[in-house]
Amino acid sequence: MKLLEDDFEVFAVDLRGQGRSTRTPGRYTLDNMGNDLVRFISGRIRRPVLVSGLSSGGVIAAWLSAYAPPGMLRGAYYEDAPLFSSELRPAYGQGINQAIGPWFELINKYLGDQWSVGDWQGLKEAMPRDLPPVLARGLAQMGDLMGGDEPPQTWREYDPEWARAFAGGSASASCDHARMLASVKVPVMFSHHFRHVDEETGRLQGAISDLQVRHVRELITQAGQRFDYKSFPNAGHVMHQSDPRAYVAVLRDWTSSLDA
Predict the structure, then answer these.
(1) DSSP code of 214?
(2) Are 41 and 240 spatial neighbours (Cβ–Cβ below 8 Å)?
(3) Interval 164-174: pLDDT, tens
(4) Is 53 within a domain?
(5) CA distance 38 to 23
(6) Is residue 202 part of a domain?
(7) Rounded to 5 degrees, what angle do the CA atoms 131, 191, 43 make?
(8) Dihedral angle of Cα 94, 99, 102, 105, to the nearest 10 degrees
(9) Residue 18 and residue 1: Cα distance in Å, rounded?
(10) Backbone phi, then psi, for 183, in 5-degree steps?
């Protein structure tokens, strides 16, 4: 945010179930989270915005780019967004069970809805034992997820039911990704980070495959919208944290081109 403050007024929003926002059992859906942000933008910012989200936040940025009220958005930056790959039965490529899903199920099993279990050490011990080896290697490539012997504060502020909602499909049940992308109404920037499809198992390592990004591009351009793409195959999933200057350069250059 310090790198952005000369050029942007920045709002960092904790989505429901994360950070300092309230946990909302049974209500973790893309539609609910997207509408939360519509209300925030209309009630607090009150002018057209650029939205940027990482991972599931990138999927919510896609939701806003399709379904926010006309004129609310100027553009949307999807940072390594798991489009299609976070659905149970996607139109293209691997679904969540062939990607991050087993990890989400493990989080919920050992931590429980609203941290009702809280077995952090058990989760750490289960990762090498219970995760498919290909997925474990992919998670290692995406960056350090677990921290030390005690849960970091960011984990304590996270509701593990959120992971279960995505792994079980309820988060995306009312939001088909192909239909959503075909409804995008603003320019899009997509930054694509580490990814690999294991030849033996077909399992996706990373957030989204090259094939899936091609279909994202196809659907958005067929909707008549500009689609810009940057590939960072050696970047961790959370590039805005691991390499903030690269993230800011992409965002600033893209925004300048929109203004031009």
Answers:
(1) H
(2) no
(3) 999 999 999 99
(4) yes
(5) 19
(6) yes
(7) 100
(8) -90
(9) 19
(10) -110, 5
Alpha helices for 117-176 (secondary structure H): 120-130, 133-142, 153-156, 161-168
Distance of CA 120 to the CA centre of its chain: 23
Q: pLDDT tens for residues 203-260? A: 999 999 999 999 999 999 999 999 999 999 999 999 999 999 999 999 999 999 998 7
Amino acid at 253: D
Domain membership flag for residue 19: no
DSSP helix/strand/coil, 209: coil
Q: How far apart are CA 3 and CA 110, in angstroms?
A: 37
Q: Are 86 and 99 in contact (CB under 8 A)?
A: yes
Q: Enumerate residues 6+ apart whose C-beta is below 8 A from 208.
A: 80, 81, 82, 83, 84, 85, 192, 195, 216
CATH of residue 66's domain is 3.40.50.1820
Report how far residue 91's alpha carbon sits from residue 176's, in angstroms, rounded to the nearest whole number: 9
**Structural domain span for residue 100:** 30-259
Task: Flag whether 3 is in a domain.
Answer: no
The pTM assigned to this predicted structure is 0.95
